[in-house]
Design goal:
Length: about 170
């Protein structure tokens, strides 16, 4: 199975999700993204090209990477694993220091409707200090597709991804 792993804002390619999927992904592509320098359109097009060129089977997205992962999964109808996804980045990333154009995120939010919800699984921290209660994620995806780690924070390292990812991945194929 080939997997595209998309890290979050100010994150790294070898994040907690990368470590968790390395146990079941035969080929993992985890590009480095500088969200402050690259325009969101450029990021999206680069990630779509990676999917097409590498015949990606599944997409994993963490935080802001979850927004891009969701759009791509909707466009390409791929299974999707999300970790504390930031599905309304226009409301979150400016407080984290993002100075880019948030209007792009507002416009692209309409693309979230294209996600095949049956092929999405999500894990969130019950104490996520960045996103909060994930009300939008819960409404969009549905609670039956979400695992909540009550003491988990925003960092994937607090969510025991190695325990949950294998069965989550198996349930979205």
């Amino acid at each position: 199975m080939s997997i595209l792993n998309i890290h979050g804002y100010k994150g790294t390619p070898h994040n907690a999700a990368y470590s968790a999927i390395s146990g079941f992904g035969e080929s993992i592509i985890s590009p480095e993204i500088d969200y402050d320098i690259e325009h969101p359109d450029v990021i999206l097009n680069r990630l779509l090209e990676i999917c097409k060129t590498n015949n990606i089977d599944m997409i994993v997205g963490t935080s802001l990477g979850g927004f891009f992962a969701s759009i791509i999964a909707g466009k390409l109808q791929k299974p999707l694993l999300l970790v504390n996804p930031c599905l309304q980045p226009q409301n979150v990333i400016p407080a984290l220091g993002y100075e880019g154009d948030i209007n792009w995120f507002v416009k692209m939010s309409a693309e979230l409707d294209k996600i095949d919800i049956e092929r999405v699984r999500c894990i969130i921290g019950g104490r996520d200090e960045i996103i909060g209660d994930h009300a939008f994620t819960k409404k969009l995806i549905g609670n039956d597709r979400i695992i909540i780690i009550p003491e988990g924070m925003h960092s994937g390292a607090t969510l025991d991804l190695e325990k949950h990812f294998p069965h989550m991945a198996a349930s979205v194929k």
